[in-house]
Amino acid sequence: MTTLADVARHAGVASSTVSYVLSGKRSVSEETRERVRRAVETLGYHPHVGARALASSRSNVLALIVPLRSDMYVPVMMEIAIGVVTRARGHGYDVLLLTNDEGSEGIRRVASSARADAVILTDIGMEDDRIATIAETGVDAVLIGVPADPAGLDCVDLDFAAAGRLCVDHLAQLGHRTVAFIGEAEGVYRRHIGFAERTLRGIQDGAAAHGVDLVHRPCDASYEAAAGALARILEERPHTTGLIVQNEGIIPPLMSLLRTTGRAVPEDVSIVALCPDPVAEQTAPRLTSVTIPAAELGIRAVDLLMRRMASGAAGEVRLIPPSLTIRGSTGPRPA
Fold first, then answer.
1. What's the CA gap between 335 and 318, in Å, rounded?
2. Bridging pattern class, strands 288-291 and 324-325
3. For residue 277, how far is the Cα from the chain centroid?
4. Does domain 4-49 correspond to CATH entry 1.10.260.40?
5. Which of 124, 208, 283, 312 would be a feasible disulfide site paired with 17, CB 3.0-4.6 Å?
6. pTM recorded for the entire structure
7. If DSSP codes are grouped into helix, strand and coil, which group holds residue 221?
């Protein structure tokens, strides 16, 4: 049986564009409309009457799917949500909040019930099974994050690979040659979440380019986990002079632990963090950091979704270039 996704592939457009042509829900160029019509005729596609009626209705609601996991830093997710809600209201939309626990079923429920006109997904895995559900249902969607294969998808994210390289570049320019990367919790890497894997890849590439001796230690967001990770690093690599941290929850305990071990920042150890500016500015000394533009990600995701729903165009990946702010936590490698 021919599906809407089959018609989209044959016409070379997004599934949502086929839906728009059939329902008249959005304005579509005459050239695109004709390609869809030819594909429908060629494949003999017959849309379900009920589904077509449903597709023509509008809820003026966007669904935002966010993770509800203990190993994710909640304030960042809340900043993303605030960006989405604020921008959506500016476009006349409300926001329906769903959790990742609902997975693909949540997307199917949104698509079949018309509870929302489109979906914004977060916590994107490199091989995310929800992507197939988006194609299957034809629902408009934007991803905050980039999977391994983003072809045909609309995605927005910080360029985490470039951010990782930027951290290494800064430490290498200061003369540091033995660096440890304290990353997200082990579960984040097991799920192959895109931002964590891309950051790690960027740091590894930067270390190789600069001849930096690098070790990566995943770490849960607790005092005990931070103490264990730091003790292991200093025991195995006592000459470590640079730390890169991508785990907001361990920054306060890490700073305290360094003081208790008699290591001054930045005189003995330099630290670069990937974190929101408020986190970097609340430590003593304040942290050199690559900022996580969480609210901006939410705003850009909504803008990209509005463009997609208005034009039917799909397949754009927008990466925000990283910016490093030098503060008091980094200095030259100790003699």
1. 42
2. antiparallel
3. 18
4. yes
5. 312
6. 0.82
7. coil
